Amino acid sequence: MSSDAGDGSDRESTPTPTPDAGSEPLLQTHGLTKEFGGLVATDDVDLTVERGERVSIIGPNGAGKSTLINLITRRLDPTEGDIRFKGESIVGMEPHEVVQRGVSKSFQTASIFPDLTVRENAEIAALAAEQGDFGFNFFTHRNKLTDVHERTENTLDAVGLLNQAHTDAEDLPYGDKRRLEIGIALAAEPDLLLMDEPTAGMSPEETKATVDLIEEVKEELGLTFVLVEHDMEIVFSISDRIVVLNRGQVIAEGTPEEIRGNPDVQEAYLGGVEL
């Protein structure tokens, strides 16, 4: 990989946030461990994410990256450890409760309703965040539904799909389906967005458009996000901080420059080849 591919020189307009003294991190995990039988997928993971940070999680296949994300979003229960969001433990909560508290996730493959329109996909996500667990309260005040419609419009505008609002989702090009999937995650108006391989399967043009979208969302919404991504060019160009997992453990964390030059990371991630 070329050394100039991800130096981030054209993406330095937003400085790494500096937390106020005594302020609570947005997300913290303590001793987070997940075992599947005799396999330890995450092993005593301590992770801290400050408000406004762009944190990437990298590591070789099987390092425990997706397991960590699924623990945070409550799709998996930890074997040991704690997860705190806005200072409150979320262990034991249902996934939709975590969404309502401000955590959203975009998946490795586009998770959309193909038979519905682009607008309907975003509205369902916005309504689920409002009502919880995709339930619908027929006594909801119409002003709240107006809020959902406004949130939908703003979301589709933010991801560049407002002009395709009435298009069936299944008819979108692959890159736009991924943009819609990010939009679905944004429709919940999260404080924290978790993205698992958002550019997987995209062409170079689609990848660039998606990276630009992530940057725009970060600038406009001040969103905090955690990114799992294999493309090192994206990781080095978009991250404030990088956390490296190997065999379920955190082996390094730091700025892109610190991670690029870390020999332990080079050995674990690329067999000693420089990043």
TrEMBL record:
Residues 27-272 form the ABC transporter domain. Probable component of a branched-chain amino-acid transport system. Gene3D superfamilies: P-loop containing nucleotide triphosphate hydrolases. One of its GO terms (molecular function) is ATP hydrolysis activity. The lineage of its organism: Archaea, Methanobacteriati, Methanobacteriota, Stenosarchaea group, Halobacteria. It comes from Halogeometricum rufum. Belongs to the ABC transporter superfamily. GO terms for cellular component: plasma membrane. This is Probable branched-chain amino acid transport ATP-binding protein LivG. It holds the Pfam family ABC_tran. SMART domains: AAA. Keywords: Amino-acid transport, ATP-binding, Nucleotide-binding, Transport. Residues 1-27 are annotated as: Disordered. It comes from the Archaea. GO terms for biological process: amino acid transport.
